[in-house]
Amino acid sequence: MTDFAPSTFIFVALNCEAKPLIQAWRLKKLPQKQPFALYRNADIVVVISGVGKIAMAGAVAYAMAQFPDVAQPILLNFGIAGHRQQALGSCFLADKITDAETQRRFYPQLAFDASCPTLPLITLSRADADYSDENLRDMEASAFYEIAVKFSSSELIHCLKVVSDNAESALEKINEESVAAWVQARIADVEDMIAVLNRLRGSLPIPESELHKQLLEQFHFTATNAAKLHTLLNRWQVLNRAATFNLAGTKAGNAKELLAWLESQLEKNRYYL
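The line above is the sequence of Nucleoside phosphorylase domain-containing protein; the predicted C-alpha cells follow.
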C-alpha cells in the first residue's frame, strides 16, 4: 500500500468489469472492512458499486469521503451498456445522460478530442430489452454523474461504456466471461481516457486557498458542504478566469445561501442541467 493520494477514481457496477482492471494495473484491495470494494495503487482507485442508481450514488459519495484531500479528481464510470444496433464490445463516451425516471439530463463537458465515438445514454431503473432509440442504456450513469459533480469539475467526469447487448444479442446472453473479455479488450481506451483527462486536469485552475479559507471561516459549513464549496469554487474559476470573487455581490447570509448562489451562476453557464 502507498500513502500517495490517488487522482483517478473508476466506478464499475460488477466484479467482472473490475477484475481485468485490477489485474492490469496490479491494484490492491483496501484491507479494512468497506461497504464497497475499493482497489488502488498510487494513482488509481477502482470502486465496485453493485448494480443500480442507489448503489452507484452511495459508492461515489463513500469513495470520495475516503479521500477528501484530493483536489479535482478524475471520476470515470466504466462498464457495459446496451444499444439497439452497435456491435458487441464497441466502446463509446456518453455525450448526454438522461435519467429515465426523473427526466433529468446531464451534459458531460467534452473539453478534449475524444479517442472513441460519442453517443447519448439513458439510465433505467431496471434492465429491459426495448431498443427503441439510439441511446446507450445502463442502470448507473445518471446517479454517478449527479453525485460526482459535487466532488470535481465537470470536465473531469465522464462515462465510458462497452456495448454488451443489442437487438440481435439479448440481455440473457450476457455472462461474466464475455464481460471480462470485452473490458480486457478496452483497457487501452480507458488508459487513453485517463491520460487525456490528466492533461486537462493539469490545465485547470486551483481554487484560491485564501478565498476558500475565508469562506470557511465566515460561514458555518458541514463537512459535506465544505467539500461542495471546494468543487463549486473550482468550477466558478473555470468560467470566470479574470474576475475577482465579490462576496458582497452574492448577498449570502449563510453557507446555504452562498452555495445556492454559486450553483445558480454555474447553471446559467449550462455546466450541467
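Note on the example: DSSP finds nine helices and ten strands in the chain. The mean pLDDT is 87.
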